[in-house]
# Entry
Amino acid sequence: MSDLTPQSDAPTPTTDKITQAARETIYLCNFRVSVDGEWLCLRELNDISLTPDPEPTHEDPKDPIAIERLNLMNMAKLSIKGLIESALNLGRTLDSDYAPLQQFFVVMEHCLKHGLKSKKTFLGQNKSFWGPLELVEKLTPEAGEITASVKDLPGLKTPLGRGRAWLRLALMQKKLSDYMKTIINRKDLLSEFYEPNALMMEEEGAVIAGLLVGLNVIDANLCMKGEDLDSQVGVIDFSMYLKDGAHSSKSTEGDGQITAILDQKNYVEELNRHLSASVNNLQAKVDALEKSNTKLTEELAVANNRIITLQEELERVKEESSYFVESSRKASRADGTANGQVLGEARKQLKEETQLRLDVEKELEVQIGMKQEMELSMKMLEKDICEKHDALVELRQQLDEMRTLNHELSIKSQSSEAGGKQKSDIISRMEEKTNQMGSIIKQLESSEKDMAKQARNLNTTAGKLIFQ
# Structure
């Protein structure tokens, strides 16, 4: 990379400090940013030839705003990737003092500020990305808790500080990607706050929202009570992403195994949560089926009692009808000249009893049919309960297997961490030994110089003696 400031022939401490500060603070509007593999390459716009080639080209010259959007997208990509890799090496738990995390928030702040419309107030023009972030509460009810927490923080006095606190709380909640996708999909609402060519209104904003999904694998523990978010100066430190000639990728096999084990552990934990949720749902269904089964058994018992009473009434009606028939026959035989009116009443009563008998038989048939249907439904419910119970047993077995696998993975991760600690201890011991050997070598060199001086002194004294 070309030097950012002209160097004089005789550098002074002041010029060195200015040069270092200029190298650490590079403004996006003066540089093109491109990603070569996993490293950042910066080229000054003045070094790039903007004159057209003799041959005809079909590409239009790029707009500076489009270049800024591309630069911000590449910076977001690099910051997210570096944050995830460093978090995996540290165990995925980060705090507020972690430098890659601070740089990530600075990059996100620049992305959200790009293309903001300035609002006129009594104190002048003001640009703040707190307004677009407040839209999330209207679009997603889950974000209401974050917005309320931000408004309740006592140390925040400016919209900029509230926006920074909102980003940190959304990252801790692991919902930052979802919230960004929600507001990016509503371009009609964002047009009130952003220019048409802003990053949040173009494809780069959707790409950044998709990249934020990867941050859900890390855990952040951020304390914002004592942090001054209103007066912080957000400057991107490009030195964290510039390619060093002596730098090489030092991803060892042990680190790869640790990350793989941690990923497997998180996957198993997520699978355990899903299995426990499905087990709870099946248990609720089984409880509901058991309740319905008890209700059906009670109804079946009532129906059986009703059938028994109807059968008893039918038998009684049969006996009474047979008694009336026999009595009428005896009366007709004994007294052929009996009153016809009595005989008609007996016949009428007989018809009523026969009709009552038919009604009772029909009701008995209906009750028998209902009893058969209830027995069939009881059998089907018992079969369904058996199947659900078998499925529940299988799911519990799978859950036990997953728990054992999770335990084994945790043991493996602990062993791998112990091996890494041993390697680091060995390396530190080797460094101490090398330092001791360097000090011994320096002592030997000093003693050798002293011996040489003594030898020269002896030679001079011997020459003098010989001369005398």
Notes: The two ends are 69 Å apart (CA to CA). The first strand starts at residue 31 and ends at 36.
